[in-house]
Protein 1
Amino acid sequence: FSVAMGFQTQPVLIDARGHLLGRLAAIVAKTLLRGQRVVVVRCEMINISGSFYRNKLKYLDFMRKRCNTNPNRGPYHLRAPSKILWRVIRGMLPHKTNRGKEALYLFRSFEGIPAPYDKQKRMVIPSALKIQRMKPTRKYCTLGRLSHEVGWKYQSVIATLEEKRKVRSQKFYLKKRRQQKIDRTARTVLTKDGRAAKFQKVIESYGYH
């Protein structure tokens, strides 16, 4: 969807695969400030511009930053891809004001696609896609790999769950295609035979075509 999207009561579900981290976060942050709920799935597939080595050095530098007297006071170095995205978005919101806090409450992010989002239609943001915004020769890395290297322990678990989800999704899709083919065949046969003509007249009398 575009940057200036309309408001809806249901949360906007975004599939983060292939999106650039900063561009995705910026659009989500502006959307949250309008009062729109947003859910982002497959955070481990988010892309970051720049080589993996460079981004890892930057994150390790961030992990060295801590309170000297009491590290429990922060900053907290979140490792999970969904939490890294959450922190980036928090940095784009006035999260210390009530308006910013309320906006941040409207946001949720996940690794993989957990239920019930696996059965809902997912969207992408064209203006934040790597394939649209970066030259093919430029280096980039995935957030999942970066998280894994700095201490995230669930990369293999999420990969296994995603494989199972894709098998279920493929099975559902093939079943849906078979049903559509049967419906098309039945519609063609009934139209040719003329058996559907009287029912079609009744349908059209109610304003449907």
Note: The CA atoms of residues 44 and 104 lie 20 Å apart.
Protein 2
Amino acid sequence: MVVAAFPIAKLAYLLVRQIGKPLAVRIKERAKTSLFFRTYICMPPAQLYHWIDVNIKMRMLNLGKPTEVPKLNENMAIELGAELLGEGIIFAVAAACLVAEYRRSSNKEREKEEQREARTEDMLRKLMELELKVEQQDAKIREIGRAHV
């Protein structure tokens, strides 16, 4: 009976992703209370996102390019910025997990390929040794044949 190896790496990735969600919530809470986070980290991306969102919606509705997009008020900008930050953290954790899994699987595949190449080289070496032995034995047989003649 063969027992499959427990995928501890996948479990670790799942754990990291699950930890990422509460971490994002805590960072959002911190962003709402910290002046630095509000001013420099939450609000600028939120205003940019709002500007892009309004422009895209106006163009999709064939209303033309807006001349001026009103800025979000501070509370809405903080909320949207904190939400964007939280989603960005969750996305970054998921992307890091995907990259780590890809690297792990490519390393595993490379090791398998190296093993195949080593096995092939070993078989070729053994084949050449057998060919040499056959030639030596042929030479001995011819020598014995000449001696009996």
Note: The CA atoms of residues 76 and 86 lie 15 Å apart.
Protein 3
Amino acid sequence: AVVSTQSTGALIPSLKTIKGICILDNDGKRVVSKYYDTTDETFATVKDQKLFEGKVFKATEKANSEIVAINNYTVVYRSNVDLFFYVFGDSRENELMLLSVLNALYDSISMILRKNVEKRAIFENMDSVLLICDEVADRGILLECDATNIVNRVHVRTEDIPLSEQTVSQVFQSAKEQLKWSLLR
């Protein structure tokens, strides 16, 4: 990413290449969103973010390309069944880099959901989806683009988590698994 300084107009490099990650349903409604540049007036409030998401959805709903330019932002996207996946950066950002982030996001979610990437499955596994977003980027800085590495970090087996840190549903699921295996022996 490149950032312009106001006083000299010079461009200085920045690691903050990703402005946001967003998943919308086929009606343009927000399913997941992570915005990394809330100082930008386009993303300052939730209302502004939803307005931007509406513009992005309208521009990409019927389009046949993977990349669009909207409001000085480069937006790469991918659609699947009833979802649209978006990654956006500054207009001067490298499209191939943004596309690799999008592919890592989509492939990681696909692996976690066992290729059943649809709205209902996203909602049922929202914790993993949000962790995937966090593993891909932190405050706009790209961390990882390899889906396998992302999934390995996100998909920690329940047995490896101490009992005191597990949720009630995880404890019940673990107990159910242990009971099933003890009955099968």
Note: The chain has a mean pLDDT of 81.
